[in-house]
Amino acid sequence: MKDTIKKVPGLAVVLVGQRRDSQTYVRNKIKACEEVGIRSLMAELSEECAEDEVLNAVSEFNQDPSVHGVLVQLPLPQHMDEDTILGAVSLQKDVDGFHPLNMGNLALRGREPLFIPCAAKACIELLLRSGIKLKGKNVAVIGRSNVVGLPTTLLLQRHHATVSVVHAFTNNPEDVTRVADIVISAAGVPNLVRGSWLKRGAIVIDVGTNPIEDPSLEHGYYLRGDVCYEEALQVASAITPVPGGVGPVTVAMLLSNTLDSAKRFYGIS
Amino acid sequence: MKDTIKKVPGLAVVLVGQRRDSQTYVRNKIKACEEVGIRSLMAELSEECAEDEVLNAVSEFNQDPSVHGVLVQLPLPQHMDEDTILGAVSLQKDVDGFHPLNMGNLALRGREPLFIPCAAKACIELLLRSGIKLKGKNVAVIGRSNVVGLPTTLLLQRHHATVSVVHAFTNNPEDVTRVADIVISAAGVPNLVRGSWLKRGAIVIDVGTNPIEDPSLEHGYYLRGDVCYEEALQVASAITPVPGGVGPVTVAMLLSNTLDSAKRFYGIS
């Protein structure tokens, strides 16, 4: 793109507050942009700023023709309305794919969303690139968040998997996971999925990234997935680690969505 | 409403073509409107009309302040783009709830759709009014159509059920239905669900309305559900019949959505 039309894709990130994990995620995304030649912009706002300031930042990026993706790092401070702010991101630049119209188009057969949410896209990409066919496969998705569980479920159904969604109110979740060919966990509960929850030979995708405090470490914590990795290794035929599994692929999908958006904007395929 | 503000809710129906089943459905809806005091309007267009004519009819009803619900009877003739036409219905009058933005709001936690699609709402209403709690219940939904299966799944998840979606590519669907506390079938395949597919005591909602040809009958056909009713009766603790089960409740939900829309329009609660 840089060679042919002398333009590069642009990704703008809005970061509100000083959460360490959010700062790390944003840094990783910006670093990834640099590596592949995507221009990155950032608006950093204080924890105490007004909702309007965030909306203004989003609005400026919406109007900037050099920006093709606008991302609001979640979670936002409690005094802000997440729906309002996410709803303000231009549909054409919603590279996270969280806009309700985009989610509706992901859910409805025969329609195409402009963007597939990055974590969901990462899970399915990992499976497909590993040569795993999804059609007719029995998949248990643990967690039904707007950010991961829901779009992953909808995307799996597009690939004709048979999906069961397990959540906090599910009785005996292990009964559901134990018959699944593929288990995708995005519950945010460390070590939730034990070896005994899995069918022998199951494929496990662990989207959980749960910080566990450990004062002896430099950063004061380490990351654990939702899956008890050591136990699952004994039963599963394949499993993604945490960290280093779904996380980096999710960032790659964000870059891919940004590139797609820029191509769409400049009318190149 | 008629007594207090001297207004009545209005429902407009767009019917294209001469399909006998569509004509019957529309007639039932209009009759139901009359029974409860909702004013009904209808635009009848020929099978051969241009897509623009349908769009014009929708647009006129969108602009008519005495109309609070606009409904396009499906299926449309093959030469028309269903997405375009359904997408043209004003969000505020989309009493069928098929607009992708509405569906996205139904899917996303923390958001509220303006309208819940009528068949989905009917299934859940039947369960709740029968005193059946959905939280934590294991529910198998058979079929994933935009009109029934998808919104039913999304609505069940709002009620904290654990949902598995079975469809044409599911291997051994009976393995999924046999562990379900509640089975909702909207597959459009007569007698698909056999007694052996059900757990003893399961609750069965049959959304299928499949016409079976029978020249000896006055109309030339009779209606069959997706469920083998006689077999299911031996196993299930409760089951809805076809006809006379979900169908009339779905029409009632359409009236309810139209009334809600009119209340919203006139600002009364």
UniProtKB/TrEMBL annotation, chains A, B:
Tell me the superkingdom of the source. Answer: Eukaryota
Q: Which Pfam family, an example, fits this chain?
A: THF_DHG_CYH_C
Some GO term, biological process aspect, for this entry: which one? photorespiration
What are the alphabetically sorted keywords of the record?
Hydrolase, Multifunctional enzyme, NADP, One-carbon metabolism, Oxidoreductase, Photorespiration
GO MF annotations in UniProt: hydrolase activity; methylenetetrahydrofolate dehydrogenase (NADP+) activity
Sorted alphabetically, which CDD domains does this protein's record hold? NAD_bind_m-THF_DH_Cyclohyd
Catalyzed reaction equations: (6R)-5,10-methylene-5,6,7,8-tetrahydrofolate + NADP(+) = (6R)-5,10-methenyltetrahydrofolate + NADPH
Q: Could you tell me which pathway this protein works in?
A: One-carbon metabolism; tetrahydrofolate interconversion
Which residues does the UniProt record annotate as the domain Tetrahydrofolate dehydrogenase/cyclohydrolase NAD(P)-binding? 117-264
Residue span, Tetrahydrofolate dehydrogenase/cyclohydrolase catalytic domain: 6-96
Outline what the protein does.
Catalyzes the oxidation of 5,10-methylenetetrahydrofolate to 5,10-methenyltetrahydrofolate and then the hydrolysis of 5,10-methenyltetrahydrofolate to 10-formyltetrahydrofolate.
Q: Which family, according to the similarity comment? A: Belongs to the tetrahydrofolate dehydrogenase/cyclohydrolase family.
What is the official name of this protein in its record?
Methenyltetrahydrofolate cyclohydrolase
